[in-house]
Amino acid sequence: MSKYDIAVVVGSLRKDSFNRKLANALAQLAPADFSFKQLEIGDLPLYNQDDDGNPAPSVKRLKQEILSAKGLLFVTPEYNRSIPGVLKNALDHASRPYGQNAWAGKPAGVIGVSVGAIGTALAQQHLRNVLAYLDVPTMGQPEAFLHMKEGMFDAQGNLGAASRDFVQKWMNGYVAWVKKLAGA
Ligand SMILES: Cc1cc2nc3c(=O)[nH]c(=O)nc-3n(C[C@H](O)[C@H](O)[C@H](O)COP(=O)(O)O)c2cc1C
Question: Which of 54, 102, 120, 175 is spaced 20 to 30 A from 149 at the CA atom?
Answer without folding.
Answer: 175
